[in-house]
Amino acid sequence: MQSDMYTDVRKRLLTVMILVPLIPFAASLAIGYSSYKSSMRQAALERAERIADSHAALIGSFLNERKTDLDVILATIGEQHLASPGRLASILASLQRTSLAFIDLGLTNQDGLQVAYAGPFDLTGKNYKQSKWFKQTCAHGSFVSSVYMGYRHQPHFVVAVMARQNGESWILRATVDQDLFGNLVEGVSIGATGEAYIVNDLGELQTEKRSGGALLEKEQGLVPTISQNAKSSGTFGQFIYATTPLNNNMWRLVVRQNTSEALQELDWAALCIAVVSLLGGGFILILAFTVSNRLIHMLHSKEHERVEMETHLMRAARLAELGEMSAGFAHEINNPLQIMKSEIALMEMVSEEAGMDAPIQEEQKATILDGLHQLGKQIDRCASITRSILKFGRHTGPEITDVNLSEFLPELCEITKRKAEVSGIEFSCSVPEGIPTVRLDAGQLQQVMLNLMNNAIQAIEERHGNEGGQLKVAVKKTDENHIKLLVQDNGKGIRSENLERIFNPFFTTKPPGKGTGLGLSICHAIIDAMGGIMEVSSARNKGTSFTISLPIKAVG
Amino acid sequence: MTTEMMTILLVDDEERLLETTKKLFEKMNIQVFTAQSGQQALNMVETHGVDVIFLDVKMPGFDGMQTLREIKRINPLAEVIILTGHATMEDAVEGLKLGAMDFLIKPLSMKEMLKKAEEAFEKVKRHSVLLQSMKKD
Prior knowledge:
The complex is a heterodimer. The longest helix of chain A is centred in the middle third of the chain and has 91 residues. By secondary structure, chain A is of the alpha+beta class. Chain A contains 12 helices and 16 strands. In chain A, a hairpin with a 2-residue loop joins strand 13 and strand 14. Chain A has 3 domains: about 140 residues, Beta-Lactamase (2-Layer Sandwich); about 100 residues, Beta-Lactamase; about 160 residues, Heat Shock Protein 90 (2-Layer Sandwich). Chain A is rod-shaped, with a radius of gyration of 60 Å. In chain A, the strands form 4 sheets. In chain A, strands 2-1-5-4-3 form a 5-stranded antiparallel β-sheet, sandwiched between helices. Chain B is of the alpha/beta class. Chain B has a single domain, classed as Response regulator (Rossmann fold, 3-Layer(aba) Sandwich), CATH 3.40.50. Chain B is built from 5 helices and 5 strands. The two termini of chain B are about 20 Å apart. The chains are: A alpha+beta, B alpha/beta.
């Protein structure tokens, strides 16, 4: 039972000592990790946005430069000069000397007819009246097209500008080198999985994707969901992305990176957190175990000390009880001794009277025999007292045995009876038939009963002196499982204000040095440990009765 | 009452003790009365002149100390010797304060008892002579 309690306490202690520090510890780690993760993600997004912005500016200025190139040519060189294929070829050659951006040049009149062409394809005389780029250029003055197949049946895009001369409109158009433009767009550096590409408003790829995707292929998923003419950023699938509109919102530049790569540092942070949790958790566990072990050990030793102290107190109370009894014992032994002395003296005197050598007379013989008989009687009386004393001292260690109350109680009463009789107390001890045996420590029960009887005798003496006292000790069976012991006196009684306190340790009404105040508290503790109940009722100057209800089967 | 013959009163609750001791003293030509309780003892003191009283203090009924006080009131000249089986310091001090001549613990031999009785009787005689001479003046 005791060790169960310790296991229970240990469990609770451990639970508290582990959970209390562990919960905030784990929570702070989790919060730290999640805020670190979100700031990492934010940083990755901002990086992607920054790159998208600056890259879009670069691409935008490249396209503007190309338009400007064509504007300058159209403005400075007249359409009549440009219309000659030789002149156009020489202009293309001089343009290609500074930049390889242009593959070909073509001059188209206002009816869409290409009047002159310089470049690798044979496109002179083609009519572009129905082409989108032609219509848009006519409408806006300049235009950069999306990638399309055209007459050459190859994906390409064109830059076109329009000028009015002599009441006629002329359009100068150039094809941009797809490889050069592709390299320009793709040329961003963000990690191993980072890439940049352009899609148009129909979701067609305008540059090749490094992660796989040819020109004019439809972009799946992400791009169609994004607003056409605003910047955006976020995560889609396994990517972190940022987009920026380009080319009059016809195109969008997409910069994206694999989330796992962008947040790579998180792995390191997670590893750190794992190590810290392991070390911290281990520390908490070790601390909890050592501290709780130490506490349990302390509890153990305190409990041990308490038990030791209790044993000492019990022994002290027992000795006090024995001291109380000694008055009765001494009186009862010294009286017969006195009788024996006087008997011997009388016998001596009678024999000396007759003279040493004279034969013993009948009358003298009778006196001497009577004296001897009386000696025997008084010796028996002493012997019965010493037997009682031995019985009192016999039960020392705690030892639970079957106690037959119909023998135990009369023996116990015998010890007290003499003391009571000297004080003129009418003593009754009633044990009815059929009282069951109880399993308990006889020594302890004896101590309790003697204590109660001694108290009763004192209370009677204080009220009645040496005459008129009554002390009743009785036992009865109350139900199948319980017996009730009664010690009732007609002594001075206990004041009602003291009645609640009589079982408190060190409570006494005796003058200093007369009582320890421990007797009844120890009795109460003993009966409690036996699983019994000890109760008291008292009326001032009428008497007191103590009842002890005990289970027939022992507890524990 | 105070003659050359000593009169003793034995007070004890043990009947046999009274009997035997009485026989012993009588064999020595000493007059002995016995009482088994304090009340009886007081009656004896009132009706018979006694010189020396052996008194047990632990008796049922009338308390020994109370008996002692009463005896001293009725007959201040009589000497009381307390003879008890159980001696406590408190009893001894109280007894001597109340005027007991001695406080003796059982068991006591006949010889010692006789010696104490004679000492007490000497004292009684001395006191009565003193009292007589004072009366003459």
